[in-house]
Amino acid sequence: MAIAKAERLMNLALCLLGTRRPLSKRELRGSIEAYLEAGNDESFNRMFERDKDDLRELGLVIETVENLEGETGYLARRDSNRLPPVALDAEEAAALGLAAKVWQQARLAGAASGALQKLRAGGMPEAGDPYEGQHSAIEPRIPVHEAAFEPLMLACRDRRPVVFDYRKSTAARPGTRQVEPWALECWRGHWYLAGYDRDRGAERVFRLSRITGKVRSRAGRYTAEVPDVVTVRESVERWAGESADRSALIRLRAGAGYPLRARATAVREGGDGWDELEIPYGHGLDAWLVEFGPDVVVVGPADLRADVVRRLRAVAAD
User: Fold this and answer.
1) CA 162, CA 5: separation in Å to the nearest integer?
2) Cα separation, 189 vs 40, whole angstroms
3) CA separation for the pair 183, 282 (Å, rounded)
């Protein structure tokens, strides 16, 4: 079955690439043996539409044209389907291969592998793994566990507004958000969505793990301008607590909170089972500290301590 379908797709692609004028469904059916063997018009139509979608998914640009008689025709122009020469050296090819490995455990694995195959077919040099032999046990990975990732990724790509329920760390129940998604960014193992919140009329950043239920698409265009990708990354960095202008002093239970220890600028071991850490203090630190529960006590500043207490009380009341 797989071989028959591959042969059918190849024949359809050759027909569409080899014609100078659009070919109708009728003409294509008469030119491809597998279509002639279709039991009836309905079976042929289903088969042809699936094949056409598969070829487009593989990257073939298929144009739909209506002739003077109102009949729909199809063709794939060679100039639209010709990949320009790929000028990459071995190091650049190795970097792309390494980037593709990042997605092997995520939903983008197929797209990443397909992109590499197309580039290699276009002349990109085969490159070995730059880490092979040295760090064979260490491979790059970006984990994607949130169900909201895929629909939001597609919405960012297609510039489609979305609606989802979002639970703030200080709220007992989730609230509905209407968002124009800009980009997804991963910071310290957590995924964040940056976009324009229509209800608040301002830029907002949402952590995907706090999105509850399904992400629903909405019709219509964006109402706010999409900023440059660098600006979006800076926003995620700021909201995720990476941009810090102060220091916080916390007490951390011995043997716990290794992510906090890795971020600390100073660590003083205590003899009572607790250590004192100085860590950068920026937006979002209170939400991060709450995740460590009873293993963390905020000493100062007072506003950070108050924010953490407020969040813990909200969680306890939920």
Assistant:
1) 36
2) 53
3) 22
pLDDT tens-digit readout, 88-125: 777 777 777 766 666 655 556 666 666 667 666 666 66
Enter the tokens of residue 29: 């059916």
Q: Confirm if 251 and 272 have CB atoms less than 8 A apart.
A: no
Is the CB of residue 261 less than 8 Å from the CB of residue 267?
yes
CA–CA dist 160, 201 (Å, integer):
17
Q: Which residues contact 300 (CB under 8 A, 6 or more apart)?
A: 248, 249
Q: Please, which residues have CB within 8 angstroms of residue 143's CB and are 6 or more apart in sequence?
A: 105, 106, 189
What are the tokens at 226? Answer: 């999409």
Structure tokens at 16: 């569409």
Verdict on whether the full-model pTM lies above 0.70: no
User: Reading across the β-sheet that carries 72-75, which strands appear in turn?
Assistant: 23-24, 72-75, 63-66
Decide if 31 contacts 12 (C-beta within 8 A): no
Q: Pinpoint the alpha helices (H) of 198-301.
A: 229-239, 258-263, 285-290
In angstroms, what CA-CA distances link 264 with 248, 279, 306?
A: 10, 4, 21
With residue 6 as reference, give the H or E element that holds it: helix 2-18
The alpha carbon of 142 is separated from its chain's Cα centroid by a whole number of angstroms, namely: 10
Structure confidence by residue, pLDDT tens digits, 8-53? 889 999 999 988 888 998 899 888 888 888 878 888 999 999 999 8
